[in-house]
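User: Can you help me understand a structure? I only have the sequence.
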Amino acid sequence: MIPILMNLLIRSGVILAAALLLRHAPRTGPRDRHRILLAALMLLLVWPLLGITLPEIEIPLPFQHAAEETVTVTQFIRGTSQVAVGQASPNWLLMIWLAGATLLLARLADGLLRVRKLVRRAKPLTDGAVLQIVDGECARLGLAQVPKLLISSTPVVPFVAGLRRPAIILPADCLAWTHFRIRAVLVHELAHIRRRDLPSQTFATAVTALWWFQPLAWWTRSALRRESERACDAAVLESGVQASNYAKELLEIAHVFGGVQLSRSAVISMARRGELEARLYAILNPQTHLLRGMRVALACALIAATLMASAVRPSFNQTSESGAHIVKRNLFSGLLASAAGLSAATIGGAVFDAGGRGISSAEASLYNADTSTKQQVTTTAGGRFSFDNLPAGSYILHVEKPGFAPLYREFNVQADDEVHRAIILKAGVTGDSGAAESNAPGADPVRVPGEHAQAKLVTQVHPTYPPAAKAAGVQGTVQLEVVISKDGVPEDIRVLSSPSDDLTQSALEAVRQWRYSPTLLNGNPVRIVTEVIVNYTLAK
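Assistant: Let's start by predicting it. Here is the structure, written out as tokens:
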């Protein structure tokens, strides 16, 4: 779990740290800094996809030692050995992240609801002089729709609310303000609306909720808010307001209303005491805007940081290297094949009971461990099912129906393969292995003791511990039933029990490559069936 968290922190930290540094480039104004920070938060949602498509560059980190794992293989005859099946440990990392993200998103939703109630209680402003100022400034700023002006019954600092239909909320005593103050306040809030700062800040809050464990995400969100305020201050100065007079008015508004607390995620308030000093300095010392060439250079630098965060992968142990590389390669090839229509493999068939009647409403799921994707269908009235347009790869089919023993099958399909199976489910309970396929070649196989099968084994590929299962702390026992052909090749492998799909795929990948010398009965080679158990154990 720790390597996964460190990987996420390092990669996301590269993007956010780059944005926080680039905003301090010479001659950058608040608008440019706001764009840089907002772009970083957007790229934070894109880089996982880039990580799939880009070639991987691995940088080893020596301070994290690999957890030692053990994989043991045993063959035995069914009924002579007792096997304890390990249970997959809960993914606490995922559960903690989900709890934190849910809590913060709920807090955002609560803030939006509270502000909505406040806006509903507010009354429309009907003063003709103020409305005339708003109309004139909207025309100057190029706003097609004039926002509503509302007066709050409670003391509030002027703010903008409403994601779809923005409104400007003013305190009850705003009608007693001077013409200079009311115009400065309205220009500031209209600039927020024109820049769409409230949707931007809400988006930043949602991204921060998803990345709540990344401290730089919180820092970027706060910096984004500060830059939006400074950009609107710059818009006020561009309207012809003298900087010293505007600074004086802003200071007085903050002194009177700055202590009023509103949800920072749901509204854009004009003045907060904790942010005032830096804003006053920026007002009295305005900065010029970036040249076009400098903007392009900063954008390229931020994109380069994102590409580096996507391609460069910190390595915490050697075991995870090949597994991650294989998963990434297969996932990319699968996406390309699906998008281009290059692969149209099909796995399907029909499910029957022992009497040959089709079993309807059985749940058939197909799992691809290479791409970590899972599809699920329900059998029709005649028991038929089909999974179409599959990319080439290895798949695990799981069929279950209450009252019948579940069935697992493993398939390795190439592009344009069409695999159709007639599957028979026998009455039983979970754990019963009385399921078979009707097209199994030849006569029923002869069940042999594990010692006999082990003695006949001439080629054994040892299973490897899946990196994903190792990182998640998953361990346990995979129990397989293997039908071996007359030539000594595993032709049918059934999964009797397993704690996870990753461990199942690892065991299947190894066992299907085993080769046996033929087993003779009365001098003739015969098909045999034996059971294999693979124990995956992590050192404590």
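Now, to help you interpret it: The two ends are 14 Å apart (CA to CA). Residues 77-89, 316-342, 430-442 have pLDDT under 50 and may be disordered. Let me know which part you'd like to focus on.
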